[in-house]
Amino acid sequence: MPPLFSAEPPTVSTTPLPGAVAKGTDPEIVGEEKAVLTPAPNVPPPIQRRHATKVVVNLEVREVVKRLADGVAKSDYLMADKERSIRGIIKGQSGEMTVNGVKYNGVMPPVMLTDEQIAHVLTFVRNAWGNTGDMVTVEEVQRVHAESVKQ
């Protein structure tokens, strides 16, 4: 039985097979080669609906987005405690909270941002959508970040 692996490189035969003709030299083959695209087999046509499904979905998405956006517009919760806002981005938040008189009970996972990015985002949010607040500094975020690691 021959070995499965050999240290010798494989040999390649350069002699043509019997009856083989080099490409483009057969005098009986004349014409052009063309590639023809054909539709893929068993592919269903795109779905076309003639009812209001899209409108209902769009309205539901808009309603959820509006509800979430209401939580940051003129937000008493956001503006009341700067450190809590920083900690919420670093560690995430869950459980019931009341924002502008509306109760929310969900989960916000931690956001993977640098301390500088957190400072920029919170400074922006605290001064947009009707909010007016002071700047969040990188040093404040670093301090809260260090305290959060200890907890």
Helix and strand layout, with pairings?
Blueprint: H1 53-70, H2 76-80, H3 82-91, E1 93-99, E2 102-108, H4 115-125, H5 138-150
Antiparallel strand pairs: 1-2
Helix pairs in contact: 3-5, 4-5
Please give a structural write-up:
The protein has 151 residues and is mainly alpha-helical. The chain has a domain at 53-150: Cytochrome Bc1 Complex, Chain D, domain 2 (Orthogonal Bundle). 38% of the residues lie in helices and 9% in strands. The chain has helices spanning 53-70, 76-80, 82-91, 115-125, 138-150, and strands spanning 93-99, 102-108. It has a two-stranded antiparallel ribbon with strand order 1-2. A hairpin with a 2-residue loop joins strand 1 (93-99) and strand 2 (102-108). Helix 3 crosses helix 5 and helix 4 crosses helix 5 (138-150). The radius of gyration is 33 Å and the shape is elongated.
Compute the average pLDDT. Answer: 74
Order of H and E elements: HHHEEHH
Query: How far is the N terminus from the C terminus?
Result: 68 Å
Largest sheet: 2 strands, antiparallel
CATH C-level category of one domain: Mainly Alpha
Number of helices: 5
Q: What is the CATH topology assignment of one domain? A: Cytochrome Bc1 Complex, Chain D, domain 2
Tell me the total number of β-strands.
Answer: 2
* Lateral strand order in the biggest sheet: 1-2
CATH architecture of one domain: Orthogonal Bundle
Into which percentage range does the β-strand content fall? 5-15%
Alpha-beta classification: mainly alpha
